[in-house]
Amino acid sequence: MTKSVLKSMRLLLIILLIIPTFSSLFGIKVYAEDIVVPESGSVYDDLPANYGVLGIASQFHIFAKGTSKLNAHTNGNIASAIFEGEVNFGTNIHEGLVSNEIDYLESVKTINSSSEIPDNATRKTKFVVGVNNQFSSVDNGNGIALNGTKLDHLKNADIFQDKNKKYIDFSSEFNKLYATSDQLYSQKPNLTITNDSFDDPNKRVIDLASQTSSNVFVNIDASVLAGNTDLNINNPSNKIVIMNVTNSQSNLDIASKIVYNGRSNQETENFSDANISWNFGNDTHTINFNAPFQGTVLAPNSAIIVNQNLDGSIIATDVDIKAETHRWDPNPIILNGAVILKKVDSGDKNKTLAGAEFSLFAKDGTLIKAGLVTGEDGTLRYDNLTNGDYYFIETKAPKGYQLDASKHPFTINTDETTEAQSVTVSDKQNPGEVILKKVDSQDKSKTLAGAEFSLYKEDGTLIQSGLKTNKDGILEYDHLASDVDYFVETKAPEGYRLDKTRHAFKIKANQETDVEYITVTNVQKSPVTGSVILTKVDSGDKNKTLAGAEFSLFAKDGTLIKAGLVTGEDGILRYDNLTNGDYYFVETKAPKGHQLETSHHEFTIKSTETADVETVTVSDKKTSPVTGSVILKKVDSADKNKTLAGAEFSLFTKDGTLIKAGLVTGEDGTLRYDNLTDGDYYFVETKAPKG
Prior knowledge:
Layout: H1 3-18, H2 43-46, E1 62-70, E2 74-75, E3 78-85, E4 100-110, E5 124-129, E6 135-138, E7 143-146, E8 149-150, E9 159-161, H3 170-185, E10 191-193, E11 204-207, E12 215-221, H4 222-226, E13 231-234, E14 240-246, E15 251-254, E16 258-260, E17 276-279, E18 286-289, E19 293-294, E20 296-306, E21 310-311, E22 314-321, E23 325-326, E24 337-345, E25 357-362, E26 367-373, E27 379-385, E28 388-396, E29 407-412, E30 421-427, E31 432-440, E32 452-457, E33 462-468, E34 474-480, E35 483-491, E36 502-507, E37 514-522, E38 530-538, E39 550-555, E40 560-566, E41 572-578, E42 581-589, E43 601-605, E44 613-620, E45 628-633, E46 648-653, E47 658-664, E48 670-676, E49 681-687
Parallel strand pairs: 1-3, 1-22, 2-23, 3-4, 4-5, 5-9, 10-12, 11-13, 12-14, 13-16, 14-17, 15-18, 17-20, 18-20, 19-21, 20-22, 21-23, 24-30, 31-37, 38-44
Antiparallel strand pairs: 6-7, 7-8, 24-27, 25-26, 25-28, 28-29, 31-34, 32-33, 32-35, 35-36, 38-41, 39-40, 39-42, 42-43, 45-48, 46-47, 46-49
């Protein structure tokens, strides 16, 4: 054998030895050391929120209890019992709105090496497989292979595997989905659509603009979807829309292009408008989507074949993707429950009672609704209750019956049933009622509101306190057993004297319609008013009273009571007939020779049975006197420029009172006198200048 041949054989041997140990390209199988990845945990730890009646299934683009086959790009995440993926999948677009991407492939038959989308700053991937799959390390520990296929887009930290339990129990989840499908079918439709619903079969529109319910249920005949013209669904208020497909055969070919709110099929992370779901029921079907479709598909027992673009979650037994699909997670469908309360006679359960009033509470005591009243048939109904525990409390018994103030609990669980819950409440008959009327003792036509009473049994046992007459002076009480009872007034109407006497009445047994009437009078109080006495004094001498000071009197809120109130010769003013309350004086004119004092001088009138007299003392400071001066100039009569010294004068007031004598002109012929108060004065020369 030649050297060249031997060299070629050695090279071939080396190549053959190397190939099984290198990672794959384009999905070629690779073989390397097996590795153990972290345990998967539970999907409910990763998806703990309330996703409505579709549950966790609504958080996957494909949710299949059987086989999912991917033969076209699938833009979304997948949960499937058996997986055969010839092409890649994953939520391809990154808009920063989906923070977690979860996949669960229980049994992987084939998978494309480009499956899933690499993590970025806004999204984290969790990729979970079942226990019977094998992982191995490749690329010197930098990569990972699943059942021999390297996963190019996934990091080791993204990958998990079942160990002791399944990440998703498909059997359990689909049992709930079967019930959900039936539950959705059981809802009363807001709208029913058949081929006859459209005036023009070539322009088919389902307009939901007039729908007011938060959940809109539409029963749509399967034959409508078989039509090959566009089906436009307008939902301008973005209600949650459930399309219940009726009269479907074992095989259904959908030829209608669904156009929802004018939207086109597209990749997106924005699911805010994903408000339409299609319920195909639990009958076994093969459903072919032969036209572009929008909305979540609920077909738990069906095989779904997608031959055209489809946006939404696909929930089915088997799913075969032959055309591009897009994740569009539905907004939660929340089905609320209802309760019907029936009020009956405790002695005759067939006798229903109208007029019973109830309040409805959540278990934690939060008031849901007050003032719920049973109708003529003895029932009341309350809708739109979310799952949880509630109770009724009777707040007013039917006429002639005793109040039952106990709690009447019930539970809403729409996962088990959407039928209204039933609550029956019974009341014992009351033999009678009493009506008390409160009137003025002098004018019986004048009724008195606000009188307060306590009601007692004959032996003094308190039945009820705090009973008040209404605006018509009436107090009614109709929860009385046969007995002798009495009222005692505990608070009189405003302006009236309290009447402490007992007002007795008797309720007769076995007379349901017996009504006792009582009239109680009150004597009006004579109004007691108060007075105020103000004394004006000098601030330097409190014993010196000041006449002529003028004041205005105000109520506390600034309302003027009286202006121009003047202190007399004794420095006093008095004001009477003041009702109880707070008041103040303000000085508006000071006495002569004193300064004005403008502060508030407050006082309070507190008259009870006797008149209250309040005193106020106000002091004023004297005004500092303002004085003037006079200059006298003495001149020669013949020469006015010649001043004369030595002339002597006396100064008098106008009335002749001597102010000062011996005032002499100086060398300049002048004399000056200061500190003269306002007034008239005169000089008299008492000694002429020399010569």
